[in-house]
Amino acid sequence: MLSKKDTVLKTLLDELNSGKLQPGDFIPSRNQLMRRFHCSRTVIEKAVARLTEMGRLAGRQGKGTIVRQTPEHQMQNIRRVNVISPYDAKSFRSPFSCLLLNPELMPVPVEMIPVGRAEAECENLCQSDALTVFINPGYGQLAVMNFLKSRQIPQLLINREFDGFDRIYTDTLSGFRQGLEKLNALSDAPLSLIALEPELQIPYQTPRLLSFYRALTESRTPFIPENTVFISQADIENGLKAAEKIFTRLPAKIAVVNSDLILPVINLAGTCGLVAGKDYYLLAFEYLTAVCNMPGVVMIRQRYDIFFEELKRFLALCNTPGRPVFTSAVPPEICCAE
Questions:
Q1: Is the peptide bond before 251 cis (omega within 30 degrees of 0)?
Q2: Which of 68, 103, 122 is the last residue of a domain?
Q3: Are 208 and 128 members of one domain?
Q4: Edge-to-edge, what's the strand order for the sheet holding 297-301?
Q5: 56-89 pLDDT tens trace
Q6: Distance from C-alpha of 181 to C-alpha of 220, rounded to nearest angstrom
Q7: Within 10 Å of residue 5's Cβ, how many Cβ atoms?
């Protein structure tokens, strides 16, 4: 004989599978279910919790519990994905390759659209059965994003945060916390910082720096403010000359918070005759295979594989009526040669 909880669970599941309860519907209130099944609130809560774990229901604060879209329901709505990317599909950098560019991995067709063509494609993007995905969008794409939003076209931002938009991005604070802990275990030398200057064309830079400084304060890592070097993206070569002062005090411990600066800083240390893991230690925001076996280098690796899984989860939810903004902050992983 089924327990009372299993009876409630089976009955509700049958109603979900039969279509009696449709995606977007609110299930009856807890009190109504208690009266219907002649059971306690605890039994109802356990059954609803199990259905929520199974991805069939979702809570709406102050409103009740709603029936979620399943991938089967969602595929009836989203029949194609338009990807607006600053990268060429054929020469896409390897860390991103697992994200969503392989059409064989996607349940619907994928079309790549270069950033420069996005504005001209606005009307074509406004198809009711299409999802538009932006990879690393800058402020220059806000006009297109707001236009699509006004047309109620589903959008998803990858690795960027703009309020009001569905987004999947790296939890930079978590990464810096873990990275500093690992770096501090390698050396107790005071820390220096090398970073790109915050500019409009790199909108992620300011929130990334704020996460770094917060993690720095929380970890109480000794820091040398005068050894903070901000480099213009347009003039990295001359900016690195200013970074040479960091190596006047050894061992040096450096945080490099932009992937474009990692190899230039390592090359700069090499020209100064310095050895990684002995004369300097590095915290690098991104994973580079060229230095993955270098001692003394701690890398914060962004989890693009999880981004892809989160994208598929979003596909199953994006047309759910009344859903909140989809926000997924993905913790990175820490890599360091032992």
A1: yes
A2: 68
A3: no
A4: 223-231, 191-196, 252-256, 280-284, 297-301, 333-336
A5: 888 876 678 888 765 444 444 777 888 888 765 5
A6: 10
A7: 19
* pLDDT surpasses 90 at 22: no
Could you give the number of structural domains in the chain?
3
pLDDT tens-digit map of 202-228: 778 889 999 999 999 999 999 999 999
Among 68, 88, 122, give the residue marking a domain's end.
68
Q: Provide the residue range defining the domain that includes 263.
A: 172-301
CATH code, domain carrying 288 = 3.40.50.2300
* pLDDT for residue 187: 93
Residues 55 and 107 in one domain: no
Both tokens of 8, joined, read: 């409630």
**C-alpha–C-alpha distance, residues 4 and 10, integer Å:** 10
Where in 42-154 does DSSP place strands (E)?
A: 57-60, 64-67, 80-85, 110-114, 130-135
Q: How far apart are CA 243 and CA 215, in angstroms?
A: 22
Tokens 């693009």 correspond to what residue?
304
